[in-house]
Amino acid sequence: RKYVYFFGEGKAEGRGDMKELLGGKGANLAEMTSIGLPVPPGFTLSTEVCTEFYKNNRQYPDGLTEEVEKNLARVEELMGKKFGDPENPLLVSVRSGARVSMPGMMDTVLNLGLNDETVKGVIKQSGDERFAYDSYRRFIQMYSNVVLGMNGEILEDLLEEMKEERDVELDTQLSSADMKALVQQFKDKVKETLGRDFPTDPREQLWGAIGAVFGSWMNPRAITYRRLNNIPAEWGTAVTVQSMVFGNMGDDCATGVAFTRNPSTGEKIFFGEFLVNAQGEDVVAGIRTPQPINKGKGDSDLPSMEEVLPECYAQLMKIQQILETHYRDMQDIEFTIEKHKLYMLQTRSGKRTARAAVQIAVDMVKEGLIGEKEAVLRVEPRQLDQLLHPSLDPKASKEVIAKGLPASPGAVNGEVVFTADEAEDAARIGLKVILVRIETSPEDIHGMHAAQGILTARGGMTSHAAVVARGMGKCCVAGCGDIKVDYSKQQFATKSGAIIRKGDVITLDGSTGEVMQGAVPTVSPELTGDFAMLMEWVDKFRKLKVRTNADTPNDAAVARKFGAEGIGLCRTEHMFFDAERIMAVREMILSEDVEGRKKALTKILPMQKSDFKGLFREMKGLPVTIRLLDPPLHEFLPQKEAEIEEIAKVMGVDASVLRHKVDYLHEFNPMLGHRGCRLGITYPEIYDMQVQAIMEAACELIQEEGYRIVPEIMIPLVGHVKELEIMRANAVRIADGVIERLGAKVEYLIGTMIELPRAALTADEVASQADFFSFGTNDLTQTTFGLSRDDAGKFLPQYVEQNILPNDPFVTLDQRGVGQLVEMGCEKGRKARPGIKLGICGEHGGDPESVIFCHKIGLDYVSCSPFRVPIARLAAAHAAL
Ligand code: ADP
Ligand code: MG
Ligand code: MG
Prior knowledge:
Blueprint: E1 4-8, E2 11-12, H1 19-34, E3 42-45, H2 47-55, H3 64-79, E4 82-83, E5 89-90, E6 92-98, E7 109-112, H4 118-126, H5 129-146, H6 152-165, H7 176-194, H8 202-216, H9 220-228, E8 237-243, E9 254-259, E10 271-276, H10 282-285, E11 291-292, H11 305-308, H12 310-327, E12 331-338, E13 341-349, H13 354-366, H14 372-378, H15 381-384, E14 391-392, E15 400-403, E16 405-408, E17 411-417, H16 420-428, E18 433-437, H17 445-450, E19 453-456, H18 464-472, E20 475-478, E21 483-486, E22 491-494, E23 499-501, E24 505-509, E25 514-517, E26 522-523, H19 529-541, E27 545-549, H20 553-561, E28 567-571, H21 579-590, H22 594-619, E29 624-627, H23 641-651, H24 655-665, H25 677-682, H26 684-705, E30 711-715, H27 721-742, E31 749-754, H28 757-761, H29 763-767, E32 772-775, H30 777-785, H31 796-801, H32 818-832, E33 837-840, H33 848-856, E34 861-864, H34 869-880
Parallel strand pairs: 4-5, 17-18, 18-19, 19-20, 27-28, 27-34, 28-29, 29-30, 30-31, 31-32, 32-33, 33-34
Antiparallel strand pairs: 1-2, 1-3, 3-8, 6-7, 6-8, 9-10, 9-12, 10-11, 12-13, 14-26, 15-25, 16-20, 17-24, 21-22, 22-23, 24-25
């Protein structure tokens, strides 16, 4: 078996499409090498090494050492240097890289191979002592932290002390002697802290670093990131060992990162940041403020690369063009300039906001780089969520207290917190918070996830906060130099002198970088232009219809704008909670006999009728599924003593009567209690009234306004065909009665929700009484798992964390279990009644993975909340392509 893949001097054993084996970084380094771009030579240990490593109790496969030695020799030959040679040493970087990039999760070690002997060789070759010791001290810092597990701040503090002693601000201002002194201090400190010498043998260093990269695959941060992003642990990481090039050899050297297009807006403008005389992650880490690459772009007044290093700039522009055309996608690149010579160190498809994803996809179709299908596939359904979210109301007044970089768009407000843990705690109890940090690091991921938005004082557009926030679709304002964060006082001060304390509300605008005091109102998103164009293509390719769950004409209107093709679920109970109606509803519940109930229901009838008219009108002839009353009646009664008394007074009944009724209706397990069609069986007059309201609304609209309406009446919680048989007969009697009385020509359908396992198992019988099935996957998940959704919060997160379940089954459909019931229900239903309409109306209808499943099993439509309609449309297109 081959474990190591070489690249260098125009030839590579790997290719760009070998990401599974070589990781994204390794595969693209190979690809860039083959297409003739300047890439320092090196080799990649495949992800199979990682998998074997963990399979065999953290032992490498046989023959790996020999393979690494062979490849190292090839690099030595190309570079004309020897690893560990005191005269002319080869230095390497050891880099991690999984199949998909995991920002900040895995650490890279640079300048590996240095010790007290080889550093002299570096001095001899470069003639630059300062550079040699700068590299050496960086190596000790990185290695002791990443490989030896020492707290990075310990050595960072020594560096800070040195700068203070010399009264300088920047690392670059320290002299050669300072760097040399630091190396000694660092080595001493490592020994003091860890109780052993810093390793001097280059081969020990190399294997230490390789082991650390493989080891980091299982560190808690990486595990968290994988969990949040659904990345399987089995994938493993690759390790790339690559000969070093140096951006820290003086002012004709530099290092930088860039995007071939703007990752925030999608605008077709090469966009990036760099630092002169710097190395590795200096740009991202915010050690100095990075300079822009293009002249006059961005907010920076620092000189651009275009001005400082014009020939390198020209070369970089050419290369980025080559890369984009080659990969046919926006690239995120990392480069280093050593003595005016440009080297490419990484390229990958750049992470982007939803807005940028849409713009880039549409632009690339216009440019002829990709086709419509590919454009549709380029936008992640989940990501669209960002676009469908509000932005600041342009008419609202706002008090801007600071301005940073517009790192990730959206407009959010919340209470200020200063630590990731606080953010998580607050989110758990339902508070909206903004996480404010000087800068973020991978340890903050859980807090970033929990917060509405992120504000950092330091760091650029490519800082950790910016990259991670964009990936999560979170609003982020980064590098806000206007604010001074004081963790110890739990507050930050703005340039203008405002003090914002923990718990104060602020608003962030991730599209402009503005920070505002208080909560500024927001408005709904604009769905025209590129977005509309992309969605047009989406609709061309998808087979699955997308409806919405909507209870009010207003919801329905929003959903129509998002492209809903009907209502898949109207929950009529929501109409009962209205302040005006609840009294009549309660009167109905409290009635002792049928006559009393009917009287109360007569009051509700006209209100229900006008609700349905509103919905039908809004949907303009599109199908509308209306579910008859579902929840147990006690939900409409007051529960607290004070409320009971107050309401009894208003209703003119004795408090004891009301209390007695509340007690009587109390259920031990309401989820499995007197609800759904069980209400219809015991109190048929309730459903009768609802069917009457639906049919009268339809008849009147058809007669008055000429719509074509086919109402779909849905009976909930059927477990046995007999239940549906009775409910159907009742509904038909009422519906036909209305039609005859009003003399209108209206068709209607009567169907059921499949939300109990028994209904799915006997779907053939149930289908004999149903014109359609709508899979109510929320209840079906509850009843299949025997898992109460309202109580699952106490243990379900742990199930996901411990990987007992791959994800929350209420969010993403459990295809193995619940999905099997859905599939069976479809098959049996279709067999018994060919042409039966099949849909799904649980939360899953807006979850991309679940939508893809629904497509596969051949449902006619999914139905989801209005804001998720475009997500479902796009997911349905992905499923079809
Ligand atoms: P990450 O996965 O965090 O992006 P990388 O492996 O890309 O980590 O390394 C981070 C940075 O280190 C790179 O962007 C580059 O600037 C620098 N680097 C890595 N390898 C080399 C090398 N061989 N020569 C010079 N710089 C390197
Ligand atoms: Mg990194
Ligand atoms: Mg990188």
